Amino acid sequence: MAVPQQQSGFSDASAVQELGRHDGRVDSVAALADGRVVSGGDDCRVLVWDPSDRTPFAGYSTLVSPDGNVITLEQDVVALSSSETWTSPVTGIEYPSGWTLTIPSLELILELEPVLVDSEFAGSRYTPAAYWEGEVRVTGTRQGRNVGGRGFVELVGYDPRQLEAAPTP
Q1: Which residue, among 52, 54, 30, 26, has the nearest Cα to 41 in the 3D structure?
Q2: pLDDT tens digits for 139-149?
């Protein structure tokens, strides 16, 4: 994961460095005041990095059960894969579309299907970078029993303009 200059807070392009890897696209990056870097990706993980040795020292996912309990899961127990892609007819940006989420330790397998595939938001005066967000239908099994519901997915970081250097004042 390369930390883009405008997201890292570094003023010199030479300070951009390779930190490590998510299992998929990185959607967000933030530099913390203490020098650590936090990243979130399509693999449903949040990683906290120590840039001095370029390794994550914390990574996790969260699961909120129907009764409201929050379960923190170690980064390596969640698998997320995309089954298809959708290309925006407006921007030409390709987004993953339709996902399988698997947590073997919970015997959980979920299929997430977009309710409306053409759900890109682009060209806003306040958010110039394009992104995709929308409702998903969720079906699957947990411990052998059928489960289902609704969810929400937001995909950021697919617009190449997000990787351009920020203008200097």
Answers
A1: 26
A2: 999 999 999 99
